[in-house]
Design brief:
The chain has 8 helices and 23 strands. By secondary structure, the protein is α+β, with helices and mostly antiparallel strands. The chain folds into 2 domains: 217 residues, Sandwich (Immunoglobulin-like); 126 residues, Orthogonal Bundle (Neutral Protease, domain 2). A hairpin with a 5-residue loop joins β17 and β18. α3 crosses α4. The two termini are 28 Å apart.
Length: 488
């Protein structure tokens, strides 16, 4: 996510996005509940191609109502169709999963806005129902056995509330526009507003997405674009993705392409007229990637891009950033603010996307790196010294800790508020000062490279920093994350 800091040495404003509810569906199709025998290996017969999607799911302590640590989704195959005239999304989700614990039923997050049209488990008809935010499918799966779950559904997408007091708060999840289009931002949860998902950050999976839309419309999703045949657009993610980092949009879009460093393909999707003032910055995407690569190593995915949507915020959705057009107050502020925000979201591709947090207590691990990267960029752009920036940042840090608490244990009702941005950015600055430019940027680059496709936490980050630098930063990191006041 991005946050708008209009002038690096003054107090700033912020931005963001939102989630989903719906009508009760009809009960799912009938059928006996099949029992699934253990597979020959954790990546059993036929599932080797999805082995990169293997995760170690953990229960999220901040939003325990979402996610299921007993299920490890390896791959989502989503076949979707959107009918704007009836505002109906029809879907078939083919989900390859591993039982991280013995299962007597499979529970995933899903919106009650959808009617279930059929469920199969390993090719046999199964029963399934949606209660609240959970899809429950009958069937036993032994620990470390693999299973294929197919869910067919249809309905009108509905969003869920965003647990935050930010001034750019919007509902989370798949949003239907007045003209019949779609778009989504869904951090910390909300992917389950458009497909059955293990909607927690620790369970990363591979994706193949196909979306069929009316003639003249475009469908955009995360992952590497695979082109379109007729009115069906396809995308594939071969590096695991956390559910909150997936994206989907349907509308009457214009498309541009560009080449980034080392020929990385970049796709820009925008709405003619509505997004015109963003175009100069979208077209700077190769420069943003080049600036980041010089510091943090090669861009970690096969493709990049930006998708413009009618939002007040922006989101680091993997390989395809989802950006709105906030009200920055003036044309001058837009030029500096949107430029900084887009750099911030590209920085997240290394920090937050390639390496995601294990649970939402560690949101600082995403936002601290992206925010510090943004400030390094704007300080360089605006000729602000590191000393000037730190003086301002310490004042902001003190106010934020007093108002929101320390960044290492954010409040559930205050998701992604300013303390998880500025406070950990200032912490990273302390490490930067102690080890110097070369060692600091090497640390960031190696962290993203060594842990690509995984979810990590505070303990693994501290261990990595200590090993990489040969210094013990344990006390420094813990103090900056846990102290109610700004550390000296």
């Amino acid at each position: 996510m991005h946050r708008r800091w209009l002038v690096p040495i003054t107090v700033c404003a912020v931005l963001f996005a939102g989630a989903c509810t719906g009508d009760s569906p009809k009960p799912a199709a009938s059928g006996s509940a099949p029992s699934v025998a253990p597979s020959a290996a954790p990546d059993g017969p036929g599932y080797g191609q999805w082995s990169a999607g293997k995760s170690t799911p953990v229960a999220d302590p901040v939003y325990p109502g979402y996610g299921n640590p007993a299920v490890d989704v390896l791959h989502y195959g989503l076949d979707l169709a959107w009918a704007p005239e009836t505002k109906t999304l029809t879907g078939m989700a083919t989900i390859q999963l591993r039982a991280a614990e013995p299962l007597t039923e499979i529970k995933l997050d899903f919106s009650k806005a959808y009617a279930i049209d059929g469920v199969q488990l390993n090719g046999a008809a199964a029963t399934g129902r949606v209660d609240g935010t959970k899809l429950t499918v009958a069937g036993s799966v032994a620990k470390d056995a693999d299973a294929e779950l197919v869910v067919k559904y249809h309905g009108t997408p509905a969003t869920v509330p965003m647990p935050s007091h930010r001034n750019d708060v919007e509902p989370l999840g798949l949003t239907v526009t007045a003209d019949g289009g779609l778009w989504t931002m869904q951090e910390p949860y909300g992917a389950s507003t458009w497909y059955p998902a293990n909607d927690q950050p620790s369970d990363k999976a591979l994706y193949d997405i196909a979306v069929t839309v009316p003639a003249g419309w475009s469908a955009i999703a995360g992952g590497t674009p695979k082109g379109h045949e007729g009115n069906t657009f396809t995308y594939s993610a071969t590096v695991p993705v956390a559910s909150y980092l997936t994206t989907l949009a349907v509308g009457k879009y214009q498309q541009e392409t560009a080449a980034g460093p080392r020929g990385t393909p970049i796709t820009l999707w925008y709405r003619a007229g509505a997004d015109d003032k963003a175009l100069p910055y979208l077209r700077k995407s190769p420069q943003y990637l080049a600036w980041l690569e010089q510091r943090f190593g090669p861009y970690p995915f096969d493709s990049a891009g930006v998708l413009m949507v009618p939002s007040a915020s922006g989101m680091e959705t993997q390989q395809m950033i989802t950006m709105g057009l906030p009200d920055y107050g003036s044309d001058a502020d837009f030029k500096t603010g949107f430029d900084a925000d887009l750099l911030h979201e590209y920085a997240h591709q290394w920090f937050g996307d390639a390496v995601s947090p294990t649970n939402w207590n560690d949101l600082w691990l995403n936002e601290g790196w992206a925010e510090y990267s943004q400030f390094l960029y704007t300080n360089e752009r605006d000729k602000v010294t590191a000393q000037q920036w730190e003086s301002w940042a310490r004042g902001a840090d003190a106010r934020l800790r007093k108002q929101l608490g320390p960044p290492g244990k954010p409040r559930a009702d205050s998701f992604a508020e300013s303390n998880v941005y500025i406070c950990p950015a200032l912490m990273l600055h302390q490490i930067h000062k102690q080890i110097g430019d070369a060692a600091f940027f090497s640390l960031g680059a190696d962290w993203a490279k060594a842990n690509r496709g995984t979810a990590q936490d505070r303990a693994s980050f501290i261990a990595f920093v200590n090993q990489h630098t040969g210094k013990d930063f344990t006390a420094l990191i813990n103090t900056w994350l846990d102290s109610p006041t700004t550390p000296k």
